[in-house]
Each structure stands twice: as C-alpha cells, then as structure tokens.
Please model this.
Amino acid sequence: MNNKTEQEVLPPGRQAGVCLHLTSLPGPYGIGEIGGHARQFVDTMRGMQLGVWQFLPTGPTGYGDSPYQSLSTFAGNELLIDIAELISLGFLTTEEVSELTTLPSDFVDYGALIPIKDRVLRLAAGRFEERASPELKQACDEFVEKNDRLWLHDYALFRILKTQHDERPWPEWEPKYVHRDPQALRELELTVDTEIADVKVLQFLFYHQWQSLRSYANERGVRLFGDMPIYIALDSSDAWANREILCIDRDGNPDHVAGVPPDYFSADGQLWGNPLYAWDKHAADGYRWWIERLQASADLNDIVRIDHFRGFESYWSVPAESETARTGTWEPGPGDAIFDAMEAALGSLPIVAEDLGVITPAVDELRDRHQMPGMVVLQFDVADEDFDLLNVTESRVCYTGTHDNDTTVGWFRGSPDDIRSDIEIRQTQQAVLRITDGTAETIHSDLIRAAFSTDARLAIAPMQDYLGLGSEARMNIPGTSSNNWRWRVRDEQLTNGVRAQVAALVSESDRILQN
Model:
C-alpha cells in the first residue's frame, strides 16, 4: 500500500467545482461535444473561479442512453466528437452536417441524433487516410498500436457485429459470434476491414480531441474529474471479449445480477441488471484487467470517482429472474486485495470513493485504509438531526446534489417523482433552512454556500444548482430508463451575472481557483 493521503488526491488548497456532463454542453450539433464549446466552458469556469470539472462516464452509451451502461469501459463515446474540428480538418463540409443543426438545442434527442451523427462520422472516418496530415496519421497509428490488443480491436468487431445484428445484445447474435469462433472472426475481419479501420479512426479522433481539451483545461488551472462505474454492461465489448471475468455462462446468461436494496431513491431498490464479477478469476491474475481499466481512466482524467465503492467490500446479488432488487443478498467483495494490487502496479492514483447508500463500518475502514476521499451529499444529510456542517472533514468531497438527485430547487419543493411524504418534505425544508439560514427563494445558492462553508477540500454543485433551475432540468431519475440524460445548458444561461454570482460564492468561502 502506498502512503498517499486523501489531501493529495484532491486539488491543492480549498477549491470549488461544477458537475456538468459533456452531453449537456451547449453547441449547434444536437449534443455537447469535446471541442470548442468545451474549451469555452473551461473559460466560463475560470470566470466563476471553479477549479474542478466533474462529469459522468464518457464511454459509448447503450441501453437507455445511460453513461453507466456503456458499450465499452475503455472506448470513448463517438457522439461527443467535435464536428467543427472535423470540418476544419477537411473531413466534412458544413452542408454534410446541416441536418445536425436542426436538432433541439436545449435537450438531447438521442433517437434523432444517433443515426444522423453516426452517418456523418462514418463519412469523416472514411476520408481520414486520404485527407489527414502525416502527423495526424502517425498519431493514429501509434494510438492503434498501443490499444489494439487491450480493447480496440475487440471493440471494433463488437460494434460491427452489433450493427449486423440490428443492434441486439451480443447473447442474441449468431452462435458462432456469441461464442467467438476463431474461424468466423477471421472471415469477418477479411470482409469488413474498412469498417474496422473506421471504428478505430473514430476512437483515435475522440482521444485526440480529449487530450487537447485536457491540456487546455490543465493549462488554465482546471482539473478534469471523471467517473468510473464499478460494473460493466452485459451488452458490451468488455463482456463479449472477457466473459471469463464475469458470472455468466458461455451463452452470456447471468444467474445473478447487480443492484442495491431499497434506499432513498427507490422503495424497491435499484435493479441495475449488470453481470457480477467472478472475483476469484480476477484475483488469480493479480487483478490485471482492473489495473488496465483504472490506468485507462487515469490517462483521461486528473481525478477519478469510483462509482458504488461499497461493492468492493460487499455487493448486492439479485437473482436474474427477479423483478425488483428487494430479493437479494450481500456477498463479499475483493476488499483490500484489489486496491493493494492496483497500488503496487500504478502507484498513487487520484481516486475518490463514491460511498453513498448503505455504508457499514467495514466500507468506511476499507476506504480509509487506502486513503481515498469519500463523498457528502447535502440533500441526503441535512434532514438528519445529528448532521452538522462542522463535521464535514477535509477528506470529503461535499456536494449539494449529484446527477442522480433532483436539482436543489426541485428537491426543496418536492418534485412529482419524490418518494418522500408531504410531512417528510416539510421536515426536510425546515431542516435545510435552519442549516443554510436562507429562504425558499434562494435555496439553491444557500445550499451551495453551505457546501462551500465546510472544511471539505473540494465542494461541488451541479450546473443546474448554480443556475437555480427546477425539476425540469433534472439529469436522471434512478430506477427509470427513459427521458434521462437529456438536459443541456444554453449559452444564454451562462451570463456575466451568473459568472459573477458564482465567483462571489467561491470567494466568500475562501475557495479560489489555483492557477
């Protein structure tokens, strides 16, 4: 075990940040992208004195457009590729992307967006070899050489086969592809070599643009804070190519799946449906896959949140045939062994543990033994009569709410999807007003001020809270699979007045952007 501290994981000094997923950025092409508008948002953050930009997982999305159900834990989401840069490189024309400009600007219409953007991205990829500069082609070759064996080639085959099978999950493909018959895959590679190359080019373009964004942010004192889900999706290239690390049979069928028991978000618990890990197989090879996975995430981000950290101590195992997560049992996770292996291989990594939900002393002890900062979410804690802002320590990241919460305004009012009773909502309202010493009209800024007032080295609010938006701007309702992940901020909302208001909140709490 290394001797890093929680404080070394977090930025120096007392800082403030924002949670805004990349898809929520403004822009003309139907979805937020990692190009010019992302760099403009970094400049906006500087004006707000915010030093950390947190976002959701950036892999290619599958079921329900959820970033937590990615088609690959290593690949980037091609939908985030910046169209303007592809135009400037000569890979596309403005006429060819004009249909993207007809899409909504205040939310992501995935059903309309995906076929249009997939088409124009394939056009761009097909022109790469002819139109890219020698330097860009060399960088692409180096990217492919570095990643082909680990994940890239399997991901390309997976995406092509998924398209050939009408986007059905891989356990429903032809048996020869389900079982990865070597002869069948060799024959496929010969017939779709151009398509394979196109997938790899698009992945290169994503990573090339991402590194440009990261460099731009870091040069301006802004750190990128990524998110790594504990589980992978069954319908993913990772599961298709590495099924031996999962508790599934050779046909891809799990007997138990992941979830959490009944909690704040859902009376029936959350039935995620992800396959569970065969932890004995991971232990047998020294957690190699996890080491590679965490290294890949750290290559993109300055800080990495591990989602559902408590699953490493013990995890909720639900029979696959269950309709809710109520029927499940706690099973032992890998515990110290996985973190000892990662630390031995990678040294000190900037990991924040998402330690929300049913947390036991054993989970706290596991997190503390590996010096990982945990999380405090005020929407969860303020109604607890024993909660005190003074007890939020330096080794925590303090939030008003997260992407899974309602906005602070919606939460305070009691939104239609709220599982709390009217009495519980009124009790929470009274409690939060006592803690913030604020009013119902200023609740969003008052709760931000409360989070900023704590000793937490890093305090973060969602962009929706900085803007004072209601439930209409909520990003996700856990336990539901439609109409999530759609909200986008508009350029006109990021006014000079908003920047000044946020900067004042940061300044008065003695949090300052480190240049």
The two ends are 31 Å apart (CA to CA).
